């Protein structure tokens, strides 16, 4: 089992929870309150529903704070065929697919299928969103600015690597779709630089504003 936070083992499924990546989207509590009850200790009861139902709800967690491992021979979490990055209004970047988060020296920090990355600059758990966009007063409708992605074959496959430029943007490399918060508009691309300081005037793309505001991040 990979290190994905605390494990909550049941008879047929193990639920893993990483509190540092949770932004309380509450998809789990709303979807299966008998299993996920924040007012109970322990708050996850993996025997309170079928493993199929639990797996389906865990897959709705947008940040990757929740994962599961079947111990009954059931199907593992599927990896999406396509990589997609979706803006959220006044909030983070949501990534789904074959996602790798890495440092500039090539060190891979995370492999995952669901990730929420900070784009306001205020997270205390960069590069991941921790919900501080609300306290920081970050506002952005989640629309797509002028496209700066390198074109790609929309049928291309492969992982999407996100490299953290020190004190700078998220450098994305690999086939993916970049979609507005409404989902009505998407760009297909293979590489580009996405703002994570919150100051770009061409969001979600970096325009160099991180230098002007003195943005500091690993």
Please characterize this protein's 3D structure.
The chain is mostly beta strands and 218 residues long. The chain folds into two domains: 6-70, 2-Layer Sandwich (Alpha-Beta Plaits), CATH 3.30.70; 84-213, CDGSH iron-sulfur domain, mitoNEET-type (Ribosomal Protein L9, domain 1), CATH 3.40.5.90. The protein has four helices and nine strands. The protein has helices at residues 27-31, 51-58, 132-136, 209-213, and strands at 6-9, 13-17, 66-70, 84-87, 93-103, 108-117, 160-164, 170-179, 186-194. The strands form two sheets. Strands 4, 5, 6, 7, 8 and 9 form a six-stranded mixed beta sheet that branches. A three-stranded antiparallel beta sheet has the order 1-2-3, with helices on one face. The longest helix is centred in the N-terminal third of the chain and has 8 residues, at 51-58. The model has no long low-confidence stretch (mean pLDDT 95).
Summarize the structure.
With 218 residues, the chain is mainly beta. Helices cover 11% and strands 29% of the residues. The strands form two sheets. Strands 4, 5, 6, 7, 8 and 9 form a six-stranded mixed beta sheet that branches. A three-stranded antiparallel beta sheet has the order 1-2-3, covered by helices on one side.
């Amino acid at each position: 089992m990979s290190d994905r936070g605390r494990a909550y083992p049941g008879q047929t499924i193990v639920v893993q929870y990483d509190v540092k990546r949770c932004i309380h989207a509450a998809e789990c509590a709303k979807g299966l309150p008998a299993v996920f009850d924040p007012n109970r200790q322990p708050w996850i009861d993996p025997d309170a529903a079928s493993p199929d139902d639990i797996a389906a709800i865990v897959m709705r967690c947008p940040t990757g704070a929740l994962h599961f491992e079947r111990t009954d021979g059931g199907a593992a979490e599927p990896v999406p065929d396509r990589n997609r990055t979706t803006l959220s209004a006044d909030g983070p970047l949501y990534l789904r697919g074959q996602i790798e988060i890495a440092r500039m020296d090539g060190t891979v920090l995370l492999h995952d299928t669901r990730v929420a990355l900070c784009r306001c600059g205020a997270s205390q758990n960069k590069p991941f969103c921790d919900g501080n966009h609300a306290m920081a007063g970050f506002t952005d409708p989640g629309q797509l600015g002028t496209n700066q992605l390198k074109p790609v074959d929309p049928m291309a496959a492969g992982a999407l690597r996100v490299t953290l430029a020190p004190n700078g943007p998220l450098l994305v490399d690999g086939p993916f779709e970049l979609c507005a918060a409404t989902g009505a508009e998407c760009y297909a691309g293979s590489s580009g630089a996405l703002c994570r300081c919150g100051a770009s005037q061409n969001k979600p793309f970096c325009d160099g504003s991180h230098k002007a505001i003195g943005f500091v991040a690993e």
